[in-house]
């Protein structure tokens, strides 16, 4: 397994090996974006396929919603208020968790997560512990061809999407949590790459059958910071589905896949993913470091593997 840290020399070597993008970009990117917009508009109130754009107006009430609005008052709070109360509770919980995270080790890492942190980068609790450190995200992005079309399937607060866009890729960033999408959009603006990223609030597994790209980037949830409590991390521990299901969904989208995985992952299992294709995909794994600290394993499948 290779050991990698992001030096300009390595980045230059990687550029030479970069995967050639499919032709017709950016038109293909725009067509894909139009398709996603259509898809997400058609079913605007399903969590898995929520509306994409911050500026989209809320959908008109359905006949059921209108019936709800006309119901006589009941002793329990009306659904909208109860939902609002639940939302506020969740927001307060998230804010408390974020404050806790900030007070801990993550605050010390803020500039390695985002070098422009002081310009106003925003995070939430999960973002603090799962954003890919910038040097690692930049090294991963260096494998993609400039102007290639990248799908970031679990985009979080934007750590990877921003680096792919900074390298000149067009990026479709899928993230299930709408609040994170707003954070990612804000962070991309700070890095000046917002116009190369299409943000989609949605469930990757619902959207996957409709998507095509040159490269899929996968950094799914690992199950929280306790992922390293086990000596060997197996692919069934990934969330929200096991590693095979995640990889298979990605395989139908692009011939090149990059996965960012825990440092204690069972590397044999990861290599086996390449056998899901016939003939097997080229495979390479490397240890990803930030300032000599081992942070995770990056696995490359397809032409992006050396
Ligand atoms: P870590 O091991 O929690 O932190 O995460 P650190 O500082 O290396 O731990 P310590 O043992 O040195 O104290 C290391 C890196 O893994 C983070 O910066 C994230 O990039 C990534 N990471 C961690 N988690 C828990 C997740 C996760 O759930 N999902 C994803 N995609 N990445 C994660
Ligand atoms: N690479 C990101 C961090 C990703 S953390 C960064 O650098 O910022 C994993 C993310 O996957 C979380 O933000 C979580 O909300 C999201 N997620 C979980 N299930 C998902 C699904 N089914 N579809 C899309 N995103 C999902």
From TrEMBL:
<dbReference type="GO" id="GO:0005737">
    <property type="term" value="C:cytoplasm"/>
</dbReference>
<comment type="subunit">
    <text>May form homooligomers. Interacts with CREBBP/CBP, EED/WAIT1, EP300/P300, NCOA6/PRIP, PPARBP/PBP and SMN.</text>
</comment>
<protein>
    <recommendedName>
        <fullName>Trimethylguanosine synthase</fullName>
    </recommendedName>
</protein>
<comment type="function">
    <text>Catalyzes the 2 serial methylation steps for the conversion of the 7-monomethylguanosine (m(7)G) caps of snRNAs and snoRNAs to a 2,2,7-trimethylguanosine (m(2,2,7)G) cap structure. The enzyme is specific for guanine, and N7 methylation must precede N2 methylation. Hypermethylation of the m7G cap of U snRNAs leads to their concentration in nuclear foci, their colocalization with coilin and the formation of canonical Cajal bodies (CBs). Plays a role in transcriptional regulation.</text>
</comment>
<keyword id="KW-0808">Transferase</keyword>
<dbReference type="GO" id="GO:0005634">
    <property type="term" value="C:nucleus"/>
</dbReference>
<keyword id="KW-0804">Transcription</keyword>
<comment type="similarity">
    <text>Belongs to the methyltransferase superfamily. Trimethylguanosine synthase family.</text>
</comment>
<feature type="region of interest" description="Disordered">
    <location>
        <begin position="1"/>
        <end position="27"/>
    </location>
</feature>
<dbReference type="Pfam" id="PF09445">
    <property type="entry name" value="Methyltransf_15"/>
</dbReference>
<dbReference type="GO" id="GO:0015030">
    <property type="term" value="C:Cajal body"/>
</dbReference>
<dbReference type="GO" id="GO:0036261">
    <property type="term" value="P:7-methylguanosine cap hypermethylation"/>
</dbReference>
<dbReference type="GO" id="GO:0071164">
    <property type="term" value="F:RNA cap trimethylguanosine synthase activity"/>
</dbReference>
<keyword id="KW-0805">Transcription regulation</keyword>
<keyword id="KW-0539">Nucleus</keyword>
<dbReference type="InterPro" id="IPR019012">
    <property type="entry name" value="RNA_cap_Gua-N2-MeTrfase"/>
</dbReference>
<dbReference type="InterPro" id="IPR029063">
    <property type="entry name" value="SAM-dependent_MTases_sf"/>
</dbReference>
<dbReference type="GO" id="GO:0005730">
    <property type="term" value="C:nucleolus"/>
</dbReference>
<keyword id="KW-0949">S-adenosyl-L-methionine</keyword>
<keyword id="KW-0489">Methyltransferase</keyword>
<keyword id="KW-0597">Phosphoprotein</keyword>
<keyword id="KW-0963">Cytoplasm</keyword>
<feature type="region of interest" description="Disordered">
    <location>
        <begin position="40"/>
        <end position="94"/>
    </location>
</feature>
<feature type="compositionally biased region" description="Basic and acidic residues">
    <location>
        <begin position="83"/>
        <end position="92"/>
    </location>
</feature>
